[in-house]
Every structure is written in structure tokens, then in C-alpha cells.
Write a structure and sequence with these properties.
- The protein has 427 residues and is of the alpha/beta class.
- The chain folds into two domains: 194 residues, NAD(P)-binding Rossmann-like Domain (Rossmann fold); 198 residues, NAD(P)-binding Rossmann-like Domain (Rossmann fold).
- It has 17 helices and 14 strands.
- It has a six-stranded parallel β-sheet with strand order 3-2-1-4-5-6, with helices on both faces. The chain has a six-stranded parallel β-sheet with strand order 11-10-9-12-13-14. A two-stranded parallel sheet has the order 7-8.
- Helix 9 packs across helix 11.
- The chain is globular, with a radius of gyration of 23 Å.
- The relative contact order is 0.09.
- Bound molecules: nicotinamide-adenine-dinucleotide (NAD) and uridine-5'-diphosphate-glucose.
- The site of nicotinamide-adenine-dinucleotide has 27 residues, from helix 1 and helix 5.
- Uridine-5'-diphosphate-glucose binds next to helix 9 and helix 11.
């Protein structure tokens, strides 16, 4: 099938590459001309394991093309997929400015029958609104069908997740359209859930809100563990073994970040509040996440016997999690911003990113960053940090404190190097 994907970001680019691999002819369009010209020169603008190889293969075979003319892409493809960003507005609601602008372009180009797939994460009711918007813009109802098809991939494992989703959700009451959308994914083995449009939109928000709830739950329980001298890692294993709860997403740490969980929790709260249904549970989930970092900085302060201008702190990690270059709502960046206001020297290293943060000096390697440090904070769980040479780290540091903000390190290896291990919710 001919598919036009609008938005060449983490979702658009990954989906485009996977659909090309499944045998479709895909045009991926972005208004960012520089991004498109880089893609046409074989430069992938984001880091996502396996993406470059897949894009390269299909671009060279002409099954995947990159362009920046949205209207032309709409005219030439029967299936249009919207994968633009839906960031948080000031009040936390999803800002649909990019979606609206894409719909305007679609309206101006649409003349024959199209299926418009909403891949972007959008609030409940957006599909209905998009349909009314297109009609108001003069498009005949019989010329299009808006279908919700939310995306559940995780950054860092986006290609794998797209080929092996837990489920494919298709939101439409139009059977013919549902069949066409389902056929796009032929070759992928997954349960397909065909439901209403608003239900599909809420499945996406409900999923992210539930994942965030699991994380804030375990992070809050980690605080109780700390107070009682218990180990959250053991507690989480015991809890997760109950199949009704599940073992995944129970890793305590300095809080969840990224471009999705924080914004989608806020957007669902805003959507619910707009209907006079304030979500108290999610409010608490967000609050726990917002205070998790502060609790950890206070712990560092306590362990160091004060955090002031005499201290040199090293931080490993900048991205919001490992295996991505994405810095959006990164807790690692937030912890550096907080520490930079208090410590005299802050050195940092990340394998992929070195964002400009006042007071932070970026080093070329993990070992260079710890030179002379009183304490080391692990803010992102990169494998490189897990596998560090702790004897060498101990030699280079001035102090001995290793704060494992992601509970990923091998405690024994650290302690046998003479260093002091401090995790989250661990004795
Ligand atoms: N990143 C993820 O892991 C992930 C996973 C699932 C769902 N989502 C959702 O998918 C959507 C996209 O997320 P993302 O992370 O890929 O965003 P992104 O910011 O990486 O990419 C969005 C792209 O859309 C382009 N764009 C914006 N307006 C445009 C327009 N009018 N015409 C053409 N291109 C335009 C931007 O230039 C950008 O390249 C969001 O709604 C997000 O919540 C993201
Ligand atoms: O046990 C865990 C798991 C994750 N995290 C943190 O939670 C955040 C989010 O992680 P993850 O969900 O793996 O990353 P995303 O790529 O943001 O993926 C989420 O957001 C996407 C965008 O909506 C969805 O598609 C995915 O299903 C959903 O997992 C990161 O800061 C992680 O460090 C933890 O602290 N402990």
C-alpha cells in the first residue's frame, strides 16, 4: 500500500521504516527541511538502535522516501498517518497545534478517498474533532475516515517494539477502514483490538497513566523501604511475582522522564478536569514523581555530610533513559540542574548527549568525569555505567560515594572496590 507519514520524529521515522520493511511504499514527510535533507543524505537525526540500517536499506531501494511537501504527500497516498508531536500546553493539556496544522494541509489537498490514521497521542475526542474540522474546512465526509491507531513503542527499543507489539489498537466503527489499517500490519504477530475512536485514544492515555502509576507507587514504597532499612529491589521482586501485578516497570529510581509519561499524565488529568472529573490518583502520581528527585538530592546531602561549594559531584547520564539520545523531561538533566546550584564542581558524562547546563562541565569519558569527585551519581542506566571498572573509578575519585539513581549497578563490585554504594530505597 502507499502510505504517507507526516512527522519524521521518533514515532514517524520508526513506523515508516517498519512499514517499508513490511513491503509498503512509504513517503515520510516533515516540515523541518533540514531534517529531510539530512535523511535524504543518509543521516538519521535521532539515535535509535537498528533504525539507521533499516532506513538505509529501504531508502536505497526507494521503498521509503523523505520529503517536505505535506500537500503533495497527501495527494499521492491513499493512507495518511499523522505522527507529529503533541506537547504539553501551559495548563498541562495536550497542545494540538501541530495536529491542527497537519489537518489544515490535509484539507487543502484532499480530493479523493483517504484513510487518515492518528498515530500521535491525542486526547479523547480528538478523532471526532478532527473529523468535524475537516468537514468545516470543506472536505466531503465520504472522502475520508479518521482512524485512531495509537503507538506504544518505547524509545531505545522502538524497532523491536514496532515489530513485536503487545497489541495493535485500531479505533474506528468503520469496518472497511479497520480492515485496511489492520492489513498495514500484516506480517506482525499481535493481538488486534478494534474499538471505538475515543476508546482507542483512552487506551493510549490509560496505558501511560498506569505505567506512571506503577513507577510512582514503587518509588514511594522505596521511601518506606529506606525508612525501615529494607531493600526495594527484593520487595519489588516479591510484589512482581504476583501475576496480577507483573514484574515489569517496578524498578525504583529518581523518577520517570521522557517525552511521554510526564506529558500524558498531565494531558489525561487536563482532559478529565475539562469534564469535571478531577483525577486525584494521577495528581498524586505526578507529585510523587516531582518530589522523587529532591528526596534523592537530600539523601546525597546527608551521605556527604552537606552539599556545598566545597563538593565536587560527578554525574553519569544525561538522557531520560538508556539507549536513546532523547533529553526531553530527563531526570538526569533535572538532577544536574539541582546539583549545579549547590556543588562547587559538577562534571558529567553521557555516551550520546552533552546538553548545555549552567555549571556543568562535560567530560569525554566516564572515568574522566569522576576525576577528583567526592561523589558519583548514576542518573541514567546505560550499560557502560553498569559495566564500569570500579577499581579504576575508586582510584580516580577523591571521595567514595556512588549514588545509584537507577538501581542498576552491581553493589558487590562497587563495595569490593572500597566504594560506598547508595541506591534508591536500599539499605
Ligand atoms: N517518542 C515516543 O516514544 C512515542 C511513543 C508513542 C507515542 N508517541 C506520540 O507520538 C507523537 C510523536 O512523537 P515523537 O516523539 O515522534 O515526536 P518528535 O517531536 O520526535 O517528532 C515530531 C515530528 O513532527 C514534525 N512536524 C510537526 N508539525 C508538522 C507539520 N505540520 N508538518 C509536518 N511535520 C511536522 C516535527 O518537525 C518533528 O520532526 C506524539 O504525540 C507522542 O506523544 C511518542
Ligand atoms: O521500571 C522502570 C521503568 C522505567 N523507568 C523510567 O520511566 C521513564 C519512561 O521509560 P519507558 O516507558 O521505558 O520509556 P518511553 O520511551 O518514554 O516509553 C513510554 O512512553 C511511550 C510514549 O507514549 C509509550 O509508547 C511506551 O509504551 C511507554 O513505555 C524513564 O525515565 C525510565 O528511566 C523507571 O524508572 N523504572
Amino acid at each position: 500500500m502507499n502510505i504517507g507519514i507526516i512527522g519524521a520524529g521518533y514515532v514517524g521515522l520508526t513506523t515508516a521504516a517498519v512499514l517499508a520493511e513490511l513491503g509498503h511504499a512509504v513517503s515520510c514527510v516533515d516540515r523541518d527541511e533540514e531534517k529531510i535533507s539530512r535523511l535524504n543524505n543518509g543521516v538519521i537525526p535521532i539515535y535509535e538502535p537498528g533504525l539507521d540500517e533499516l532506513v538505509d536499506r529501504h531508502r536505497t531501494a526507494n521503498r521509503l522516501i523523505f520529503r517536505h511537501d505535506v500537500e503533495e504527500t497527501v495527494r499521492q497516498n491513499d493512507i495518511i498517518m499523522i505522527a507529529v508531536g503533541t506537547p504539553s500546553a501551559i495548563d498541562g493539556a495536550a497542545d494540538l497545534v501541530f495536529v491542527r496544522s497537519v489537518l489544515k494541509s490535509i484539507a487543502s489537498a484532499l480530493s479523493d478517498s483517504k484513510i487518515i490514521i492518528m498515530k500521535s497521542t491525542v486526547p479523547p475526542g480528538t478523532g471526532d474533532w478532527a473529523e468535524s474540522f475537516l468537514i468545516e474546512e470543506g472536505v466531503a465526509k465520504e472522502h475520508f475516515e479518521v482512524v485512531s491507531n495509537p503507538e506504544f513503542l518505547r524509545e531505545g527499543t522502538a524497532i523491536y517494539d514496532t515489530f513485536h507489539p503487545d497489541r495493535i489498537v485500531i479505533g474506528t466503527h468503520n469496518e472497511a477502514a479497520a480492515e485496511v489499517v489492520q492489513s498495514l500490519y500484516a506480517g506482525i504477530e499481535a493481538k488486534t483490538i478494534i474499538t471505538g475512536r475515543t476508546e482507542a485514544e483512552l487506551i493510549k492515555y490509560g496505558s501511560n497513566a498506569f505505567l506512571a502509576t506503577k513507577l510512582s507507587f514503587i518509588n514511594e514504597l522505596a521511601r518506606v523501604c529506606e525508612a525501615y532499612g529494607a531493600d526495594i529491589m527484593d520487595v519489588a521482586i516479591g510484589i512482581g511475582k504476583d501475576s496480577r501485578i507483573g514484574e515489569k516497570f517496578l524498578q525504583a529510581g529518581i523518577g520517570y522522564g521522557g517525552s511521554c509519561l510526564p506529558k500524558d499524565v498531565q494531558a489525561l488529568m487536563a482532559a478529565a478536569a475539562a469534564k469535571n472529573e478531577p483525577l486525584k490518583l494521577l495528581q498524586a502520581v505526578a507529585e510523587v514523581n516531582d518530589t522523587q528527585l529532591g528526596a534523592y538530592v537530600r539523601k546525597l546531602e546527608h551521605v556527604l555530610g552537606g552539599l556545598d561549594e566545597t563538593k565536587h559531584i560527578a554525574v553519569w547520564g544525561a538522557t531520560f533513559k538508556e539507549n536513546t539520545d532523547d533529553l526531553r523531561y530527563s531526570r538526569a538533566v533535572a538532577i544536574m540542574e539541582s546539583l549545579a546550584r549547590r556543588a562547587s564542581t559538577l562534571t558529567a558524562y553521557d555516551p550520546l548527549a552533552a546538553p548545555s547546563i549552567a555549571g556543568v562541565t562535560w567530560k569525554e569519558s566516564a572515568l574522566a568525569a569522576v576525576e577528583g569527585a567526592d561523589a558519583l551519581v548514576i542518573a541514567t542506566g546505560w550499560a557502560e555505567f553498569v559495566q564500569a571498572d570500579w577499581q579504576e573509578v575508586a582510584k580516580r575519585m577523591k571521595g567514595s560515594v556512588v549514588m545509584d539513581g537507577r538501581n542498576v549497578l552491581n553493589r558487590k563490585a562497587i563495595e569490593s572496590a572500597g566504594l560506598r554504594y547508595v541506591g534508591v530505597g536500599r539499605p
